[in-house]
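hiii so um. not sure if this is the right channel but i have a protein structure encoded as tokens and i wanna go backwards to a sequence. like what aa goes where. can anyone help
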């Protein structure tokens, strides 16, 4: 987690845009718990995790939209839907706060 905060600090100093996705609520069985974070850079690279898989891809897509409109949002990841395969270990819901940090460049 310290590395993620160091990278956030560096991005702020460089005035580079980024998005922080934070788990703000969970219900049931989820891969990560409240306060887990994922950093999304403008080029789409991520650091950290909010759980992986399809849910993380959904949050990544919301982060990319946030770069475009500059608006924060809450994404609810539903892990209760049946999926094929015997290895399903989650079955809950996660609320993720997707927060764009879009510094204004000095001109």
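sure thing!! here u go:
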């Amino acid at each position: 987690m310290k590395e993620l905060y160091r990278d956030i600090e560096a991005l702020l100093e460089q005035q580079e845009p980024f998005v922080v996705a934070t788990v703000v609520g969970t219900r049931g069985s989820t891969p990560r718990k409240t306060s887990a974070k994922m950093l999304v850079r403008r080029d789409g690279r991520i650091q950290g995790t909010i759980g992986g898989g399809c849910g993380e891809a959904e949050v990544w897509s919301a982060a990319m939209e946030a770069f475009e409109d500059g608006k924060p949002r809450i994404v609810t990841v539903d892990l209760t839907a049946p999926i094929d395969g015997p290895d399903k270990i989650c079955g809950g819901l996660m609320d993720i706060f997707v927060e764009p940090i879009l510094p204004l460049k000095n001109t």
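oh and The chain has one domain: 2-101.
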